[in-house]
Amino acid sequence: MVGRTLIRGGLVITASDELHADVLIEDGRIAALAASGTPAAEAFAAERTIDATGKYVIPGGVDAHTHMELPFGGTFASDTFETGTRAAAWGGTTTIVDFAVQSVGHSLREGLDAWHAKAEGNCAIDYGFHMIVSDVNQETLKEMDLLVEEGVTSFKQFMAYPGVFYSDDGQILRAMQRSAGNGGLIMMHAENGIAIDVLVEQALARGETDPRYHGEVRKALLEAEATHRAIRLAQVAGAPLYVVHVSAMEAVAELARARDEGLPVFGETCPQYLFLSTDNLAEPDFEGSKYVCSTPLRPREHQAKLWQGLRTNDLQVVSTDHCPFCFVGQKELGRGDFSKIPNGLPGVENRMDLLHQAVVDGHISRRRWIEIACATPARMFGMYPKKGTIAPGADADIVIYDPHAEQVMSAETHHMNVDYSAYEGKRTTGRVETVLSRGEAVITEREYTGRAGHGVYTPRSTCQYLN
């Protein structure tokens, strides 16, 4: 019985089922499930038993969009792979997929190797990589094939940030054509960066320098236009498309239209767009800088359409785009010029709790919570059923979740390496109690019992929503 763990008496929730069941874990994987109280369950034996009575037993969260240690705007994201993955575990996330970056003039391999070096031996939970493609050329296109073969099966391009990550339509088309052939998935930051730069320049010339103007120049119509263009380029290339951090109702409408046409187009949104708005960007005394991210926060009326998109499956995934910058010394770089505020919000620790609050509030069902936060991201990025579900043979990435515990989100108590919370003072119902990663306790009854280096790199297969 050495190495066996038994979770007894909880309500097991997956994307497809809810069942009062006991879960037997052996050698880091789920060995068996049986309905609680049945002879099969009574026959389970283990050296360690976790009593989950009155609790949920859910798959560990899969956050498919994080940016640990990302260089941006003359500084770096404040979470390292060590601090960021520890915070993720505290929030019930047991797998992240981070973005390795190709710099212009360098190869994909150099970028990927650099990110492996940052992460290896430092992660508390398992991790994979997407590849940011900043420089499309013949060598890059060949490298895309090699990366898919070794388990980096998704590539992010930017229609925004001219001079940094930006790709023009021709470069995007070439990369999409390549992914159509090699099975990779193109992820798109869909905003018209060329037009936005004009609006930024004009706003600053008018003396409009406060953080709220960040949201005003990055117009919803320019997100919708870029989303439409990305969809049509993917259609021309015969390639699937995944649009990241969708924030505007007009962009959701473009995705819904494409899906109604039967196109392999997918959309992700993030908690900040579901729970925050331009009201936060307008907070006085430069407090609004804490909420500067791209795509930007939108007026509150966009939230209902995002929730609707999640219910109708026009949006399939909720990731965080976790990219934290401290208010002091980092966000402050943009005092007097909103365009110099580093873009990004902390959130890797908050996602599972915020989405449970959405269950409490009636926006989504419990199974949909698990679907958008665990199962679908695992399937979308080639990790299912190893990740994202509770089933025999799956990795024992399991969260014991107390649906009745109440908490107040605060920078005083969170574990992300950032000096503010985007959700400061927000009361939520539901809290992570214990977290297992491949059967090993990372959080034990609200204490951190994990270690840097437990988390291992996870190669991925291609998107499991495609043939």
Number of helices: 14
Mean residue pLDDT:
97
- Structural class estimated from helices and strands: alpha/beta
Alpha-carbon distance between the termini?
A: 41 Å
Low-confidence stretches: none
Major beta sheet summary:
8 strands, mixed
Q: Count all strands and give the number.
A: 18
Helix content: 25-40%
- Percentage of residues in strands: 15-25%
Shape: globular
What Rg do the Cα atoms give?
Answer: 21 Å
Can you walk through the features of this model?
- The protein is of the alpha/beta class.
- It is built from 14 helices and 18 strands.
- It has helices at 39-42, 81-90, 108-119, 138-149, 169-182, 193-205, 212-217, 220-237, 249-260, 271-275, 278-281, 302-312, 351-360, 366-380, and strands at residues 4-13, 18-26, 29-35, 48-51, 56-59, 61-66, 71-72, 75-76, 93-101, 126-132, 154-158, 185-189, 241-243, 265-269, 317-318, 398-408, 427-437, 440-443.
- α4 (138-149) runs parallel beside α5, α5 (169-182) packs across α8 and α8 (220-237) runs parallel beside α9.
- The model has no long low-confidence stretch (mean pLDDT 97).
